[in-house]
Predict the 3D structure of the following.
Amino acid sequence: MPRSIKKGPFVDEHLATKVEAMNASGQRRVIQTWSRRSTVTPDMVGHTIAVHDGRKHVPVYITEAMVGHKLGEFALTRTFRYHAAQEKATRRRS
């Protein structure tokens, strides 16, 4: 169930203050965060936010198309290696 429109988008307070400080100073540095649940707002566009994926911070450059989505959507937590059936097929060929 989505969040109420009356409440507005959820953004962790510490992340919002970091983005506001960067906008006020005009700097463009990477902001590290563990807040995968925060929603991307128009204030964040143009910044690079390093989102934690469980083991490392993945840098994500925020664009207009990302507004309204959660930060966690852009830092995948699982790395796809290969299909097991694919590996068997390659072993038979060699």
Observations:
- The helical segments are 13-25, 84-93.
- Residues 13-25 form the longest helix (13 residues).
